[in-house]
Amino acid sequence: MFRRNNRGSREQDDKTRGKKMEDCSVREKAMRINLSRSKQLFEIAKTFTPGGVHSNVRWMEPHPMYFSRGLGAKIWDVDGNEYLDCLGNYGAIVLGHGDPDVIQAIKQQLDQGLTAGVESELSIDVARMMTQMIPCCEMVRFSNSGTEAVMHAIHIARGYTQKERILKAEGNYHGWYDYVYCSNRYPYKDWPLPKPYPSSQGLCADVVSKTLVVPWNDLEKMEEVINRYKDEIAAVIIEPVSHNIGCALPKKGYLEGVRELTVKNNILLIFDEVITGFRPAPGGAQEFFRVTPDLATFGKAIANGFPLSAVAGKRKVMDIINPALNKVSYGGTYNGHQAVIAAASAALEKLKTGDVQKHLNRLTKKLVNGFNEICARRGAQARMQGIGGKCQVYFTSEEVVDWRTASGVDQTMYKKFRDGLLERGILWPYSCFSHPSITAAHTDQDIDRILATSEEVLTKIAKD
Q1: I need a labelling partner for 422 at 20 to 30 A (CA). Which of 64, 173, 232, 436 fits?
Q2: CB burial of residue 351 (10 Å; 0-12, 13-18, 19+)
Q3: Which residue intervals of 92-145 are DSSP H helices?
């Protein structure tokens, strides 16, 4: 961190902050929609909650938005504005808001009176269903969030291999666990590899230093680091599709190459499928790309937005957490909470057939191709990339394949585009490094609306 010691620097910072506040004020006045109630609630919320939000990603300028209800592909804010929802609870909603089968399953389970801290036949049924759907899943254990699942997967990998280091990729996000919350957003494009860059203050420096970092989609760099540290690396953890820089697809042969490197060097491979899980195919990205890891983490879509996650993997690896062996601990009062297990049971029944995934892939292809055709026709330096109901718009002329190419996009143009969609009733993620969602509840008419609105917004941006 740099310390500012001179008055000139402070004055410049004051001017910058003033300009930023002025820009926000102008943007707020220019909005076609009324957000007065959200603004009022923010003034109240920030007195009780830092920033007025319970997750930093929900904070936005000039104030967060507050919502009252959702149904299908629509969501309504507290001011009564209706939006076509392309935020999708940051990927947690795959069937749509308030899916009737999921809601009914939860209601029936609540009537049974069981909540947490116990096992049931329903837990067995959902675990069995996952082993039938996911290629790597010979055994599975539930948890509550993606961060927890990743933490447990790393514990399992260390316990099984008796090695300590973890190798991750730049731009990949695996939650808030100290060992992996690094180099997912860092300011230096030429940061020396494989040194990690902490993504937040408050992390334990000694812990972060145990993690090695390589560029995503770069087999040569990964091989170089693995050759140097192979006797110390317990696991390689990657997103099979890099969704936390938006939507960057793996290069041809990349995932296969990573699998080959890890097998060759006696290193476990962990796919973080918290976002990709159940979207491009019933078995997630590993089924879609036909590359099977040793362990995988799941969340979000697994219970259509209710708080459930899981670690799935090969039997010989997962057995390290068998309590009878007393080797690696894996606990949690709310693991397998019966209400969310019921939600998962209903959601997975729909996801296991492949019909939802066909719908998501078809609509995503239509949206991506349509948007890129608009940009080509208008000569706009923008592109959309997507797969399995996830996508993102990048204001750049080159394909985004990793964090370094993603960091070069025009973020100012993205914010103008995002605000333009919001003004016209389409809720799109605030950050250009997030991942918009298409759900099973979205229709062809919704995609047509997104495309028509995108062209209208791009036209306005060009005029301005």
Answers
A1: 173
A2: buried
A3: 100-112, 121-133
Contact 387, 287 (CB under 8 A): no
Mean pLDDT computed over 144-173:
95
Per DSSP, helices labelled H in 230-354 are: 254-264, 285-289, 315-318, 338-351
| Token pair listed for 397 | 């002329």
**Which of 458, 463, 452, 405 lies closest to 432 in space, CA to CA?**
405
CA-nearest of 100, 111, 102, 72 to 349 is: 102
**Closest to 254 measured CA to CA, from 294, 221, 211:** 221
Q: Which CATH number fits domain 100-351: 3.40.640.10, 3.20.20.150, 3.40.50.300, 3.90.1010.20?
A: 3.40.640.10
DSSP E strand stretches across 179-299 = 211-214, 233-238, 268-273, 295-298
What strands, in cross-sheet order, belong to the sheet with 74-77?
A: 67-71, 74-77, 82-85, 426-427
- The structural domains of the chain, with segments of one domain joined by +, span 22-97+355-463, 100-351
Q: How many CB atoms lie within 10 A of CB 162?
A: 7
Residues with catalytic function = 173, 272, 300
* Token pair 């808001």 in the structure block, residue: 97
Q: By the 8 A CB rule, do 434 and 392 touch?
A: yes
Predicted confidence (pLDDT) per residue in 286-337, tens digit: 999 999 999 999 999 999 999 999 999 999 999 999 999 999 999 999 999 9
Radius of gyration of the chain (CA): 22
What sign does the dihedral 273-274-275-281 (CA atoms) show? positive
The reported pTM is: 0.90
Structure tokens at 151: 């933490």
Residue 162 is encoded by which pair of tokens? Answer: 């008796």
Q: Which fold has domain 22-97+355-463?
A: Aspartate Aminotransferase, domain 1 (3.90.1150)
CB 243 within 8 A of CB 402: no
Q: How far apart are CA 309 and CA 286, in angstroms?
A: 17
